[in-house]
Amino acid sequence: MIGVGKAKQYANVLDKPLSRGRQEVSLSAFAFLFSELVQYNQTQVDNIAELERRLEDAGYAVGARVLELLCHREKGNRRETRLLGILSFIHSTVWKVLFGKVADSLEKGTEHEDEYMISEKELLVNRFISVPKDMGAFNCGAFVAGIVRGVLENAGFPAVVTAHFVPIEGQQRPRTTILIKFAEEVLQREARFG
Amino acid sequence: MPPATGPKSGDALFASVDRVNAELFTLTYGAIVRQLLTDLEEVEEVNKQLDQMGYNIGTRLVDEFLAKSNVSRCVDFKETADVIAKLGFKMFLGVTATVTNWDAEGTSCSFVLEDNPLVDFVELPDTCQGLQYCNVLSGVIRGALEMVSMKTEVTWVRDMLRGDDAYEMRVKLTKQVPEEYPYKDDD
């Protein structure tokens, strides 16, 4: 028949059923891909701060989507509106889906009211990464910091999020702490909520 | 001496490696593609970069594959293709491919993927219709095969993101490089 056969069917992504998120790929596949992300970004920058910012940007894109996905799938289209609610959503739900476990700890900063920390002994993205000496305090966890910022910001909690290595006594590898510093308006809003 | 064992089955192989949630993988890949589109602007350049990234991955990934799969030397390209489709794809992505459309010489064939973890949540906007979104995969195949002395050309012939009914990659063996010994470390 004339004209038949090449009629292409574009499947709308929203028409497809949402996956239940049980599918897995090998950790190596992810590690290889992540290493390419880091290597590519290294070619685009000339200092460490810039490299971390770019990894954070990449993570932010992931975080924004993860928030949308998980609010729909895990929370029945409800999203946390309180500070502690969203933090524990990240620490438990987001971490569990992305990294297969809840984060090792979620703590409030002792010196500043607006700071919170999520710590992980061995962050998944850092598992196969060793940072060369000349790159100083560079932490690939910047990608995860970006994910956290992506979730927070899109849920209405703007914050500055950074990743840091923190040495643990008696351990060769330091743990990674994701430091969250909320914008002033977030704390003011929380205070009004009481 | 370790007991002589044959190659593992694809399922056993996938079960034996550490795994992560496919959504983290999918979204991270998406973030990479978006970054490339922003930086490079030209879709053609993005295709090239994705292929290059895949190639880099392939050259490293093949070592892990050979170390963990217990696969012995393949007698011909046909066997190689089967191993990639049933074990290679499975070990890393948890899916298998079908090998079809062999040419008469047995030097080119197609991998058809029904499940493709790279493309969940993806839709190509009108401005990116020329984008070979999965180019990283073809790069991986090319890179991995080059490390086992096979030069190949890998192209996409069907892509569901462009409205086709499956993902199909055409792999063409262009040259089998004889192994040379002794290897030199310094070049």
Nutshell version of this structure?
The complex is a heterodimer of chains A (194) and B (187). Chain A has helices at residues 27-43, 48-73, 83-99, 142-154, 184-193; strands at residues 24-26, 105-108, 115-120, 159-166, 175-182.
Structure notes:
Chain B: InterPro entries: Bet3 (IPR016721), NO_sig/Golgi_transp_ligand-bd (IPR024096), TRAPP_component (IPR007194). Chain B: Belongs to the TRAPP small subunits family. BET3 subfamily. Chain B: It is found in: Endoplasmic reticulum; Golgi apparatus, cis-Golgi network. Chain B: One of its GO terms (biological process) is Golgi vesicle transport. Chain B: This is Trafficking protein particle complex subunit. The complex is a heterodimer of chains A (194) and B (187). In chain A, a hairpin with a 6-residue loop joins strand 2 (105-108) and strand 3 (115-120). Chain A has helices at 27-43, 48-73, 83-99, 142-154, 184-193; strands at 24-26, 105-108, 115-120, 159-166, 175-182. A four-stranded antiparallel sheet of chain A has the order 2-3-5-4. Chain A is globular, with a radius of gyration of 19 Å. Chain A has five helices and five strands; from the N terminus they run βαααββαββα. Chain A starts with 23 loop residues before the first strand and ends with a helix. Chain A has a single domain (27-193), classed as Trafficking protein particle complex subunit 3 (Muramoyl-pentapeptide Carboxypeptidase, domain 2, 2-Layer Sandwich). Chain B has one domain (20-122, 130-176): Muramoyl-pentapeptide Carboxypeptidase, domain 2 (2-Layer Sandwich). Chain B is 44% helix and 17% strand. Chain B has five helices and five strands; from the N terminus they run H-E-H-H-H-E-E-H-E-E. Chain B has helices spanning 10-16, 22-40, 43-69, 77-93, 135-147, and strands at residues 19-21, 97-100, 108-113, 150-158, 167-176. In chain B, a hairpin with an 8-residue loop joins strand 4 (150-158) and strand 5. The A-B interface holds A 8-13, 19, 21, 23-30, 32-34, 36-37, 39-41, 44, 54, 57-59, 61-62, 65-66, 69, 97-100, 124 and B 14, 17-25, 27-32, 34-36, 39, 49, 53, 56-57, 60-61, 64, 91-94, 117, 120-123, 136, 160, 162-165. Strand 1 of chain A pairs antiparallel with strand 1 (19-21) of chain B.
